[in-house]
Design a protein that fits this description.
CATH topology of the largest domain: Rossmann fold
Number of domains: 3
Low-confidence stretches: none
Shape: elongated
Mean pLDDT: 89
CATH class of the largest domain: Alpha Beta
CATH architecture of the largest domain: 3-Layer(aba) Sandwich
Radius of gyration: 26 Å
Distance between the termini: 81 Å
Helix content: 40-55%
Oligomer: single chain
Strand content: 15-25%
CATH superfamily of the largest domain: Response regulator
């Protein structure tokens, strides 16, 4: 008596061809985009495949062809609303363009070169990096293997890979100009203890604009780029509240914690006592509980540019390196007095 609970036999293309009464090559053509096969044959093959539960081994096929429709996406800080929406838009955009995204989580302890190297083992068509700046060596390995690499809001890795950056220097100046316009004279900038390339660039450009205007700035570096980091910054602000009347948070995620800390833990009024501006314009910034004035960097525009660069590189690998900038804009709400 056979064991009904034993391992199920793997169905292959020969089994589908036998049941459909066609050749194995007809099965292959049916599941190959753009291949020539009659409607009658296709219908037979699809019906047989469904009956047998057959699925094409896309990975095996890609390894055989030395290319695939897989695109690796390396990301970190997925609890951050900005990053979560960015990854959602990137993966959805890849699917709409006929590619299959592979999400690799790159946390601070992870080596981004190792993560990209692991993706190369799967013959990926391309790689998008939104976490740490990849080292030059792995960038050149991607180039040598014909794998397009697009880095988003990262410093120049030293290799001619395509890059997308937001105008964070203009954003820092915009935050400074707005706080001064709203009457602030004693400024602070809130940033994580270990800032990324773009976050640090926002803080530096804010400080440079303030220095040029003869305004002193207190830098508050607390924890990570998170809500808890914002709460810790609010505690510091409360201790020196007479020295600060305007705060630039280098990310909205920080600003949410700053606002809740100032209002609910320390009894300070925003914007009456202290004015606050953020950066990103995440969905929560517009919630009535926060009503946060912020600098908008469009996730949709950022992702469209990223995907456009990747598609161009796939179509024409010999294009010169491209560096594209995504614009920013001011969104005025209730945490500043500028409206």
């Amino acid at each position: 008596m056979s064991d009904a609970t034993g391992p199920k036999k793997t169905v292959n293309s020969f089994d589908v061809a036998r049941l459909a009464g066609v050749s194995r090559s007809a099965v292959s053509r049916t599941f190959t985009d753009g291949a020539s096969v009659s409607k009658e044959t296709r219908d037979k093959v699809i019906a047989a495949a469904r009956e047998l539960g057959y699925r094409v081994n896309v990975l095996a096929r890609s390894l055989h062809k030395q290319k695939s429709d897989l695109v690796g996406v390396v990301a970190a800080d997925l609890d951050n609303p900005f990053r979560a929406e960015q990854i959602d838009l990137l993966t959805q955009g890849l699917l709409e363009r006929g590619f299959r995204p592979i999400l690799i989580r790159g946390e601070p302890s992870a080596d981004v070169a190792d993560l990209i190297g692991s993706l190369l083992q799967y013959s990926v068509a391309g790689v998008i990096v939104t976490s740490d700046t990849p080292p030059e060596s792995i960038c050149r390995e991607c180039l040598d293997n014909g794998v397009p690499l697009v880095v988003v809001n990262k410093r120049d890795p030293g290799a001619p890979v395509d890059r997308v950056v937001t105008a964070f220097e203009a954003g820092g100046r915009m935050a400074y100009d707005h706080l001064v316009f709203c009457g602030c004279k004693k400024l602070a900038v809130v940033t994580p203890e270990n800032s990324s390339y773009s976050i640090n660039g926002r803080a530096l450009s804010f400080e440079q604009a303030a220095n040029a205007g003869g305004v002193a700035v207190t830098r508050i570096a607390c924890g990570t780029q998170s809500y808890d980091g914002g709460l810790a910054a609010a505690e510091f602000v409360n201790r020196v509240k007479s020295e600060i009347d305007g705060i630039f948070c280098t990310a909205d995620y920080l600003a949410l914690g700053v606002l809740d800390g100032l209002r609910h833990e320390h009894g300070l009024r925003v914007p009456e006592d202290i004015q606050v501006i953020g950066y990103d314009d995440i969905a929560q910034a517009s919630w009535k509980a926060y009503d946060l004035t912020t600098i908008l960097q469009s996730r949709k525009a950022l992702c469209e540019i990223t995907l456009d660069l990747l598609m161009q590189r796939l179509e024409n690998p010999d294009l010169p390196q491209q560096i594209r900038e995504c614009d920013i804009s001011l969104v005025q709400r209730g945490t500043t007095r500028g409206r």
